[in-house]
Design goal:
heterodimer; A: about 140 residues; 5 strands; about 40% strand; B: about 140 residues; alpha+beta; seven-stranded mixed β-sheet; 2 helices; 7 strands; about 20% helix; about 35% strand; elongated
Chain lengths: ~140, ~140
């Protein structure tokens, strides 16, 4: 399993402890797709997607790897405040589980937003999670 | 009388035996090579100088000012204190002991200490998974 996938899996598992999602891949997945193509029972749905990494070479040729993963929590019929509350819960879970079960040195939510549009009934809670590892 | 170069090799061998580490290719740079997890490397900078002795210039001994830097990279399951509270203390107990520099394999090289071995608290640092400390000492070589 790639480092990206390990972090994404840990984040999906963590989100499930604080946000009720449909079971299995019906409720969460790695990658992203168009919500309008999905069945109604798949919501709220979590996408862990667009991972990226920057690497800094530090003394003794060690690497400080800074990885960013986007989490999109998409609701089909939720209200604005309810989605924001779920984002709070996800952030607070990461604050309480900085190492994501020991796979990174620490993790934090580096940005959050609620994305809404008059053109769709879907709402997206978007979090960018940044992790740091040193090897 | 050991030459400074021979003394350098003797000091390096003693430090390697004590710490279980290998000497880095560069004694001045820390960016040119890595350290395997759970192992150590060290650097030794030891310029030599002549010790002035009034009235006896022909027998002025050679001094060496040593800067020993030991670098330990934590193993995969090793915590910081696994090292700093255990093995690091063991090694420092010798490196900071004046008697260590005048005994054993160093006895034939070191005449006496000019400066006692010393370590400043700020000389113990961690970068990434590598914990480093530096010890200074100055010795007079045997004539």
């Amino acid at each position: 399993m790639s480092d990206f996938a390990a972090i994404e899996d840990a984040l999906i598992a963590g989100v499930r402890t604080v946000v009720t999602l449909p079971a299995g891949e019906l409720g969460a997945e790695k990658g992203i797709r168009e919500p309008s193509t999905m069945n109604g029972d798949a919501f709220p749905h979590l996408f862990a997607h667009n991972p990226g990494e920057d690497v800094e070479l530090i003394e003794f040729q060690q690497e400080r790897r800074t990885t960013r993963v986007q989490l999109s929590l998409v609701t089909a019929d939720g209200d604005h405040g309810g989605l924001a509350t779920k984002l709070d819960a996800i952030r607070d879970w990461i604050v309480s589980n900085r190492t994501l079960g020991g796979i990174v040195l620490y993790a934090f939510v580096s940005s959050r937003s609620v994305n809404e549009s008059v053109l769709t009934h879907f709402k997206e809670g978007l979090l960018e999670v940044t992790t740091v590892q040193e090897v | 009388m050991p030459t400074p170069a021979a003394a350098d090799a003797t000091f390096a061998a003693a430090i390697a035996t004590l710490t279980g580490g290998t000497r880095m290719a560069s004694d001045h740079r820390t960016d040119l090579e890595g350290i395997a997890a759970g192992t150590r490397k060290f650097q030794l900078v030891d310029p030599s100088f002549t010790i002035e002795q009034a009235g006896n210039w022909n027998e002025s001994p050679v001094g060496m000012a040593l800067l020993v830097s030991v670098h330990h990279k934590l193993g995969a399951a090793e915590t910081e204190r696994d090292y700093t509270a255990d093995e690091m203390h063991t090694h420092l107990a010798s490196l900071l002991n004046p008697g260590w520099w005048e005994a054993g394999t160093l006895a034939a090289t070191v005449l006496r200490l000019i400066e006692s071995p010393a370590l400043e608290r700020s000389d113990v640092v961690r970068v990434g998974r590598v914990i480093s400390y530096r010890v200074t000492v100055a010795v007079a070589l045997k004539p």
